[in-house]
Amino acid sequence: MKIDFRYASHPVDARSYGTDELRSHFLLDPIFSADQIHLTYSMYDRYIVGGVMPVNKALKLETFDHLKSSYFLERRELGVINVGGSGKVTVDGEVFQLDKKEALYVAKESKEVTFESSGNEQALFYINSAPAHHRFTTKKVGRQDAEIINLGDDKYANKRILNKLIVNSIVETCQLQMGLTELEPGNVWNTMPAHTHNRRMEAYFYFDLEDGQTVCHFMGEPQHTRHIFMQNHQAVLSPEWSIHSGSGTASYSFIWGMAGENLDYGDMDGVAPNELK
Ligand SMILES: O=C[C@H](O)[C@@H](O)CC(=O)C(=O)O
Ligand SMILES: [Zn+2]
């Protein structure tokens, strides 16, 4: 396992970050490395973001120094979404088959979690984890189980399909929420109009972006925005004070994940496009 660590930033400090500082504090890259579990432990709500890419062997989620626990999920819950070929996640002996864009919620106190590819195409497991106080039930959320919201309009180049996957109307969680948003062809703007939610931090992971294209991710306080150019399979941390929105040079999909004070997906403080600076 490879572990990175990130401290949280004060919004007033972040106003003066240049490109390199901004990327070193918020951009998470790489997410996927062959036969590696690569994680970042963030001080934003002690959220963990990472990727699992099992090529030649099954990979086991182990505890690491920042957790000071006897196993990874001793005091945590986990969300997994596969963005590659078919794969298998085994939780304490129970096998869950995850095809592309399917999710698994793994309950606190699950002792052994392993990941492997199970088809010809490489499985790619994107994972998020948050501290947890209660053991709920491990549950797969397949494509048909998703709650779908149609958002946006061609006219604003933001027509997209939002799939709620790990949310409390589908699976009980302590503080984790995850889902997947797909931009319709020719549409490029996500999460516009933008929002913040001081109650929750968030992380975005961009995927299914055509080779050679990019997504410009916008962050920062609504009146002090910054941008990070993102490549396929990179993630970015969004502090509780920050907007999280992006515009691509092509359409793409992304996974959002968040944790914090509440489990209310709709709790957002909207910002109209013409109020942004
Ligand atoms: O707090 C919620 C998140 O920012 C995302 O769910 C927003 C999103 O996927 C979109 O508008 O496309
Ligand atoms: Zn949000």
TrEMBL record:
CDD domains assigned to the protein according to its UniProt record, in alphabetical order: cupin_KduI_C, cupin_KduI_N
Keyword Metal-binding assigned: yes
Catalytic activity entry: 5-dehydro-4-deoxy-D-glucuronate = 3-deoxy-D-glycero-2,5-hexodiulosonate
Binding residue positions for Zn(2+): H195, H197, E202, H244
EC number annotated for this UniProt entry: 5.3.1.17
Associated pathway: Glycan metabolism; pectin degradation; 2-dehydro-3-deoxy-D-gluconate from pectin: step 4/5
GO molecular function: 4-deoxy-L-threo-5-hexosulose-uronate ketol-isomerase activity; zinc ion binding
Cofactor requirements of the protein: Zn(2+)
Matching Pfam families: KduI
Keywords, comma-separated and alphabetical: Isomerase, Metal-binding, Zinc
Protein origin, superkingdom: Bacteria
Keyword Transcription listed: no
Cofactor note: Binds 1 zinc ion per subunit.
Xref: InterPro entries: KduI (IPR007045), KduI/IolB_isomerase (IPR021120), KduI_N (IPR027449), RmlC-like_jellyroll (IPR014710), RmlC_Cupin_sf (IPR011051)
GO biological process, one term: pectin catabolic process
Protein purpose: Catalyzes the isomerization of 5-dehydro-4-deoxy-D-glucuronate to 3-deoxy-D-glycero-2,5-hexodiulosonate.
Similarity comment: family membership: Belongs to the KduI family.
Protein name: 4-deoxy-L-threo-5-hexosulose-uronate ketol-isomerase
Source species of the chain: Galbibacter marinus
Organism placement in taxonomy: Bacteria, Pseudomonadati, Bacteroidota, Flavobacteriia, Flavobacteriales
